[in-house]
Design a protein that fits this description.
This protein is 30% helix and 26% strand. The protein has 4 domains: 2-124, Rossmann fold (3-Layer(aba) Sandwich); 150-222, Regulator of K+ conductance, C-terminal domain (Alpha-Beta Plaits), CATH 3.30.70; 235-355, 3-Layer(aba) Sandwich (Rossmann fold); 358-457, Regulator of K+ conductance, C-terminal domain (Alpha-Beta Plaits). The two termini are 24 Å apart. The protein has a 6-stranded parallel β-sheet, sandwiched between helices. A 6-stranded parallel β-sheet has the order 14-13-12-15-16-17, sandwiched between helices. The longest helix is centred in the first third of the chain and has 14 residues, at 126-139. It is an alpha/beta fold. Mean pLDDT is 90; it is low at 454-458.
């Protein structure tokens, strides 16, 4: 597949890296020479210096025979015009744009992005996606990651194993013996920064991050099994009143009626706007690193602090400061990869990566076959894929123990007629079952083929 990525920032770089690693023909456009140099030196892609919305630049990048354009520059207007030009002049089939300014996204202007006006197939708003991801983590206390699948019949949950976790040093094959009625499959373990696909003989160790797929109705029992029995937070403090902080507060107001929410925002004008926009949330104007402001927000009584300012360092320090004052749980928004290994050892409970969330959203539209959802896990370690089993798929019609799955592929759950089935050796996948599986990056292309209709089928 031939893809043009407009923008060589963190999101653009990661999308290009992902697509190039799967042998796609990728060209990256950016107007900043230093980023183009970095892309050329680091990735196996073409790099074009120039403005992504200029027809001559898109032509140079090969828009004439491109399958997809992904516009993720820092300017919404450049992203939108690049997609428009790609459609009008080069007839590029699939156009994806990142749009941050909420003025464009208000429901009253929904017709703006129709095929007749501005033909963009997929609009991605990272701030809204990130706020939703944080909200999901708040609903499952103790979780590092929560991803709903199959209309929320199934969830992927990530947890950190502490010394109190009753499952540490237990071979995974014994989980079905210990919890015969619990629909859970462990699909990934991250140990000392290294991700691995577990075998039945592997054990979880203290400090491991464990990712498992579970029947949503069994979420509480699964969290208890891992030693997490925290109550859902009733008092939440949001540090930073930008788009993410505002969306999160709005979601909490809409879906968590009994939750007490406070926001701290540094810029006075923005704080006033946030206060006017929200209905039941207290907004304080001040510095999130100022102990007096944190004291005024009663940080000692807060159960969860969410640091979502525009600065990684501020988010890390303010989250740690809140923990020192007595907050039970701290989440921090972090853009830079380099901080991730340090943060959990320092005491931040949950790291939120906007880049990973945005890349996952885009990947859903890159994957081929009957694939409904794709989520990137742990910096490109692999993907969680939700797809429909076709009659021609090698998965269908035989017990799983007789099917040779590609290396690095684990079946997490099967959803049939609204019921969740935890896959075992004797389980038989049927046509039209919704299948949730994990695949390492190396095996993704093989998984795609399993869910693609073959020509001889017709």
């Amino acid at each position: 597949m031939k893809v043009i990525v407009c923008g060589a920032g963190q999101v653009g770089f990661n999308i290009a890296h992902y697509l190039a690693s799967e042998n796609n023909d990728v060209t990256v456009i950016d107007q900043r020479p230093e980023l183009i140099r970095k892309i050329s030196d680091t990735l196996d892609v073409q790099a074009v210096l120039g403005y992504a919305s200029h027809p001559t630049v898109l032509e140079q990048a090969g828009a004439g025979d491109a399958d997809m354009i992904v516009a993720v520059t820092h300017a919404d207007e450049v992203n939108m015009i690049a997609c428009q030009v790609a459609h009008s002049l080069f007839n590029v089939p699939t156009k994806i744009a990142r749009v941050r300014n909420q003025s464009y996204l208000q429901p009253v202007w929904a017709n703006l992005f129709s095929r007749e006006n501005m033909p963009i197939d997929v609009i991605i708003s990272p701030e809204i996606e990130v706020a939703r991801a944080i909200n999901r983590r708040l609903q499952v206390p103790g979780a590092l990651e929560v991803i709903p699948l199959a209309n929320d019949k199934v969830r992927l949950i990530g947890v950190r194993c502490s010394e109190e976790c009753p499952l540490i040093n237990t071979p995974l094959r014994q989980l079905t013996v210990l919890f015969p009625d619990l629909n859970i499959v462990i699909i990934g373990i991250v140990r000392q920064g290294r991700a691995l696909v577990p075998t039945p003989d592997d054990q979880m160790l203290c400090g491991d991050e464990v990712y498992f797929v579970v029947d949503t109705s069994h979420t509480d029992r699964a969290m208890s099994a891992f030693g997490h029995e925290e109550q859902e937070a009733r008092r939440v403090l949001i540090l930073g009143g930008g788009n993410i902080g505002l969306f999160l507060a709005q979601q909490l107001e809409a879906t968590h009626q009994g939750v007490n929410v406070k926001v701290i925002e540094l810029e006075r004008e923005r704080a006033e706007y946030v206060a006017k926009t929200l209905h039941h949330t207290v907004v304080l104007n001040g510095d999130v690193l100022d102990p007096e402001i944190l004291d005024e927000a009663n940080v000692r009584k807060v159960e969860t602090v969410v640091a979502v300012t525009n600065d990684d360092e501020t988010n890390i320090l303010s989250a740690l400061l809140a923990k020192r004052f007595g907050t039970k749980r701290a989440m921090a928004l972090i853009n830079k990869n380099t901080y991730n290994p340090l943060v959990s050892t320092l005491g931040v409970d949950v790291v939120i990566s906007p880049r990973a969330i945005t890349v996952s959203t885009i990947l859903q539209h890159v994957r081929r076959g009957r694939i409904h959802a794709v989520h990137s896990l742990h910096e490109g370690f692999g993907e969680l894929i939700e797809a429909d089993a076709l009659e021609t798929s090698p998965l269908v019609g035989k017990p799983l123990k007789e099917i040779k799955l590609p290396n690095g592929v684990l079946l997490g759950a099967i959803v049939r007629d609204g019921h969740v089935i935890s896959p075992r050796g004797n389980t038989v996948v049927q046509t039209d079952d919704r299948v949730v599986l994990f695949s390492t990056a190396e095996a993704v292309k093989k998984v795609e083929k399993m869910f693609t209709v073959r020509l001889e089928y017709f």
